[in-house]
Design goal:
- There is one protein chain.
- The longest helix has about 35 residues.
- By secondary structure, the protein is mainly α.
- The protein is built from 17 helices and 10 strands.
- The radius of gyration is 24 Å and the shape is globular.
- It has one domain: Up-down Bundle (A middle domain of Talin 1), CATH 1.20.1420.
- Keywords: Ion transport, Membrane, Transmembrane, Transmembrane helix, Transport.
- It holds the Pfam family Na_Ca_ex.
């Protein structure tokens, strides 16, 4: 009976693929988030809505404008919460533990403080995984919505491949011009970066093997499981390289690396959430220390709400132009709902920042859910292929935390390790976790219920995007290597050369977007 039911579902899905429209889903029309397009005299009318049924009477053009406006506002929210996420992660990484050792000469106890987190593992798990959480959440939500379908949802994989391109090209383009004119920031541990780069490239080669070589257009349970397990191999290999384990590491010496993940001069500043860019101001040192004083913690939490409601800062009051001040206050008014909502995140001084870290990821996941709904509606109203929206607008917006985190790391750290590691490792996380986990959920369900694998509806377009991405990424890595050989660093340097590199990387991104969009849309 299950096999018969699966064959009927497969036949129905195959027949739907032949319809001359971009996206169809026969669900109960008129409910929030459900995508339904009825056809009247050849013209598709999207009957779904986000908040209220009256949206369907507004007209497609106006609805598209409103949904894109909502999408942009969500992306601003992602930028704001990333600032708190980064601050919480700094506190997590600074955590130490007391280690007692016996001095062999004096036979006395020696107490020292040891870092709990290895910096390489922190870059891969806390930084890269955390900043990739919007994409991972979106892909997982997309998988759960399509649970029981024989075909995988298109938003998850498309967004993650598009996000990989955004991480590699625009984020590198921003980070390379962040250092001050003439300042050079280089990768201190090239061997660790080489390991991370290998697993990043292999992730997309592996994805292509699944889609086009091993089991074309199909994902099996074992393929999904192997994809997830490779994230563990990345962690082990990177840690082995950092510790220089014999036989598992590249025999390449490590350059000078600061003891602290965040330099002392940067740690003496407190981050203020501001979407215009990171701003810092001096605060008492006691505010930065781990505190068990309940009143002190409550005072810090109260200060977050006070800051969220302030429409004019001390810097704004110094501006002479009343028009500029008015525009800044208007902008802060638009941000006030996000700032007030994110003030609920506990101060980073509680539990070494873990509560703030988890709450930040929770908010990121919630915004990603709203972004998924808005993207569905945009595809429904406009008829644009969901894949095109996924690896363009959606990938750009959900990758914004990656951009903010890498930019802050490039500004605050003395080396380029974390800024570039976040880019490289985020791409690995996107495949091994962001695609692996949703596919594992869907393939496991289909295997248990129907004894059927998971089918990929637009595998040809996705595979083509992988080829384009791989080709353009070679150009990106080549220019970073060239800068290391000629200037001595990957980031910074003379401004003309930095901006030239930035423009070149942005051009690679445009090439990826244009070719991928044309292929998915059936033009090439």
């Amino acid at each position: 009976m299950q096999a018969c039911f699966a064959s009927v579902r497969l036949s129905l899905s195959s027949s739907l693929d032949s319809l001359p429209i971009f996206s169809v889903s026969f669900r109960r029309a008129g409910t929030p988030g459900d995508i339904s397009r009825s056809h009247m005299m050849g013209h598709g009318v999207c009957e779904s809505y986000l908040l209220f049924p009256g949206e369907t009477a507004l007209g497609d053009a106006f609805r598209t404008f409103l949904y894109f406006l909502g999408l942009a506002y969500c992306f601003i929210g992602l930028s704001a919460i990333t600032a708190r996420f980064f601050s919480s992660m700094e506190n997590v990484v600074k955590q130490t533990r007391e280690v007692v050792e016996i001095d062999p000469q004096t036979n006395s106890k020696v107490v020292r403080q040891e870092k709990v987190w290895n910096y390489t593992i922190a870059d891969i798990t806390l930084l890269a995984f955390g900043t990739s959480f919007p994409q991972i959440s979106l892909a997982t939500i997309d998988a759960l919505r399509n649970l029981g379908e024989l075909y995988a949802g298109g938003l998850g994989p498309g967004t993650l491949v598009g996000s990989a391109a955004f991480d590699l090209f625009p984020i590198h383009a921003v980070c390379v011009v962040v250092p001050k004119s003439g300042e050079l920031k280089k990768i201190s541990d090239l061997a660790v970066w080489a390991v991370e780069l290998f697993w990043s490239f292999w992730a997309y080669i592996w994805l292509y093997i699944i889609l086009k070589v091993w089991t074309p257009d199909i994902v099996t349970l074992w393929e999904a499981l192997l994809t997830v397990l490779q994230f563990g191999l990345l962690l082990v290999h990177a840690y082995a390289q950092d510790k220089r384990w014999p036989y598992l590491s590249i025999p390449l010496a490590r350059g000078e690396r600061p003891e602290e993940w965040v330099p002392e001069e940067a740690a003496s500043y407190k981050h203020v959430d501001n979407v215009d860019g990171p701003m810092y101001h001096n605060v008492p040192a006691s505010d930065l220390a781990e505190s068990s004083n309940e009143l002190h913690v409550l005072a810090l939490w109260k200060e977050q709400f006070v800051d969220a409601l302030m429409l004019e800062s001390a810097e704004t009051k110094k501006l002479y132009s009343i028009y500029v001040r008015a525009l800044r206050m208007l902008w802060q008014s638009l941000l006030a709902p996000w700032r007030l909502m994110f003030a609920l995140v506990p101060p980073c001084q509680i539990a070494h920042g873990w509560f703030a870290f988890i709450c930040s990821l929770t908010f990121i996941s919630g915004i990603a859910y709203v972004v998924t709904k808005l993207t569905d509606l945009i595809s429904c109203v406009t008829g644009i292929n969901a894949y095109v929206i996924a690896f363009t607008a959606l990938a750009t917006g959900t990758s914004w935390p990656d951009l903010v985190a890498s930019k802050i790391a490039a500004e605050r750290q003395t080396t380029a390790d974390s800024a570039i590691a976040n880019i490289t490792c985020s791409n690995s996380v996107n495949i091994y976790v962001g695609i692996g986990v949703p596919w594992l959920i869907n393939t496991a369900y289909n295997f248990i219920m129907y004894r059927e694998p998971l089918r990929i509806q637009n595998a040809a377009g996705l595979s083509f995007s992988l080829i384009v991405f791989f080709s353009t990424s070679v150009g990106c890595i080549s220019v970073l290597v060239l800068r290391r050989l000629t200037l001595g660093a990957e980031l910074g340097g003379p401004k003309p050369w930095a901006w030239l590199t930035s423009v070149y990387l942005m051009l690679l991104w445009v090439i990826f977007l244009v070719l991928s969009s044309l292929k998915v849309s059936g033009i090439i």
